[in-house]
Amino acid sequence: MSVSGQPGAGVRGAYAPWSVPGGTGTVLVLATLPMLAGTLLPWVLLRPNRLAPGDSLRLPPALVGAGLLLAALPLLTARLFPRLTGLAASLAVVAGFWALGTQTQAAVAGQAPFARASAASGVWLFWLGAGIATYGAGLLTRSRPERWLAWAWGPPVAALFLSGHLNAWSVLIEGRSEGPRWVQELGQHLRLVGEGLGLALLIGVPLAVWASGRERAAGTVLGAANAVQTLPSLALLGLLIAPLSALANAFPALRALGISGIGVAPALTALTLYALLPILRNGVVALRGVPSGTLDAARGMGMTPAQLFWRVRLPLALPVWLSGVRQAAVLLVGVAAVAALIGAGGLGTYIFKGLQSAATDLILLGAVPAALLALGLDAALRGLERLLGRHFGRGP
Amino acid sequence: MIELQHLERRYGDAYAVRDLNLKFPEGELTALLGPSGCGKTTTLRMINRLTEPSAGRVLLGGRDTRDLRPEELRRGLGYVIQQIGLFPHLTVAQNVATVPELLGWDRRRTARRVDDLLELVGLDPAVYRAKKPGELSGGQAQRVGVARALAADPPVLLMDEPFGALDPLARDRLQDAFKDIQQRLRKTVVLVTHDIDEALRLGDRIALMHAGTLAQFGTPDDLIHRPASPFVRHFLGEDAVLRQLAGRAAAEFVRPGDPAGLPRIADTLDARSALGVMLREGSDALAVLREGVPLGVLRWDDLRVREAQARKAQA
């Protein structure tokens, strides 16, 4: 096909409002490849029980055809109807979940109750590709109303979960057998993160305000927080066991309060210490970053030190400070998972239990919600930052 | 209105300001002029106690400023600084309303005052009220800074190099605008500057400082024609008269006469430029026109007459 022979053909690209930028095109190609591979790879792993080795099952030919088509769909849509790319990518995501549901159902039909049908490499690769496709669609439709189509997979996937279509999937079987305990551990995880963050804020906020006005103090405080941060979380938890159990032995009253070498007390201590650095660092930097001219003007107009803080310093420091709080929150979701090792509970319980018994489904039962929790928390706090940023103007 | 008595500020063994005695006349603009490091900003900051004096005192309307709480004192003194210091997180209207809010004015009175002030400094309230400082040009931001300082109608205005960070064009325009405002409001203004042109142009009086002490205090004519020391003459420069003429319109010197055959200038031209035209055209008189209509004649002798008067007064 000769382009040079058609007048207008070369010009069209320049005028078309919806050309696919090179980078996004590459992203969508990168999305297609894992989806193609995923379609051809084993889709379900069927095992007689949750520990035994099993057989890999592939998709039936009809679904392989549909899968190959879906794999190419986001790229094709981006070329032909760019604004609908998000819809095509969402369709691929939903199709992945739907096919997992039908295939696991088919696999366990007629098997013993202990049989487990889990997602095999094909499913994960297909999801990876579909995920990249939604990301590419988001890039392509950025700052256009169609960008929400890249999230269109949300409600159908939720519906698939709620309708029980995925109930034959091994992870959900484990989840159902855990049931209320799982909810409890999720709650415990949230409590650990919330309380650790709360304590860190309670200590870190006044400390940052105090240190921001003092050069030497700021250096010392940040140095100490930095030192804590460099300790691996497991080592810190281990280090806390000895002093806390000694404390509990020396003062029985403390033991009555629930303080001991293992369990929630050392976990909360470690979480608080970890969250302290981002809160302190961003607080000190943000408070020191308020322009001196602004402070001088505020003082010169007759603001009291308290008014200066609440009306000028805090609002100007808040956006940067909040991003430190967000970092701390996300960090704590991860560290709280490790805290299960010393008996503090939380989603980490499933991860370690799964690791010990080589049960992938149990690991996923802890790991996936923890990952989603971190992502959700990050998004929510980012939104809060943006809201406050708009409220307080675009910072200094 | 404001009186400095034996005012001193030491940093270790070094004096930033030393035994300074000065009376800022009420309703006039006094320029605190001097080279950098002469202590002029320190002096200004001792008036509103952003810097506490090491010795001596400041009287405001006869009252020692140390008898007031610093915050209370400052709310009664308008304050404009070079870096503008607008609050970037607040709108223009909220910035201007800062002091009225600290004083607890009611909302409607404050809103009305904000609009009046924005109009006064030449910014349309409907356009600028809701803007953030980040959306303003340097000149507009400085106008808001002036409006903010005037918000609670303080009798005194303290200005620290308020036009220093502006480009020459914006500075000229803002100086003109501020001169108009001052003519209407008649505040007691203390303006710190190192710019001789600005001091000659805006100052009713000039307090020239040197190394923490007062070198001379007087009207611009005093400093130009009767310098108290070689330092004053040297600092103002041999062309100080020209600088002063640059701040005056040619029309001020016009007298009736026959403009026929004379080189023509517009009445909006400043007197120094008019002098330049005389030199270029080789003529000791110029025809001054207002919108094309002859207004009168500007003569070489009339430009000199102020000097002559001054010398006579001295004798």
From TrEMBL, chain A:
Gene Ontology annotations for the cellular component aspect, listed alphabetically: plasma membrane
A Pfam entry, by short name: BPD_transp_1
Compartments (UniProt record): Cell membrane; Membrane
GO terms, biological process: glycine betaine transport; transmembrane transport
TM helices/strands, residue ranges: 27-46, 58-78, 114-136, 148-172, 192-211, 257-277, 328-350, 362-381
Domain ABC transmembrane type-1: 186-381
Membrane topology note: Multi-pass membrane protein
Family to which the UniProt record says this protein belongs: Belongs to the binding-protein-dependent transport system permease family.
PANTHER family to which the protein is assigned, alphabetical: GLYCINE BETAINE UPTAKE SYSTEM PERMEASE PROTEIN YEHY (PTHR30177:SF30), GLYCINE BETAINE/L-PROLINE TRANSPORT SYSTEM PERMEASE PROTEIN PROW (PTHR30177)
Protein name: Binding-protein-dependent transport system inner membrane protein
Lineage of the species this protein comes from: Bacteria, Thermotogati, Deinococcota, Deinococci, Deinococcales
UniProtKB/TrEMBL annotation, chain B:
Residue ranges annotated for the ABC transporter domain, each copy included: 2-236
GO biological process: quaternary ammonium group transport
SUPFAM superfamilies the UniProt entry points to: P-loop containing nucleoside triphosphate hydrolases (SSF52540)
An annotated Gene Ontology molecular function: ATP hydrolysis activity
UniProt keyword terms in alphabetical order: ATP-binding, Nucleotide-binding, Transport
Superkingdom of the organism of origin: Bacteria
Gene3D superfamilies: P-loop containing nucleotide triphosphate hydrolases
Database matches in PANTHER family: OSMOPROTECTANT IMPORT ATP-BINDING PROTEIN OSMV (PTHR43117)
Family per similarity comment: Belongs to the ABC transporter superfamily.
Protein name: ABC transporter
Organism this protein belongs to: Deinococcus phoenicis
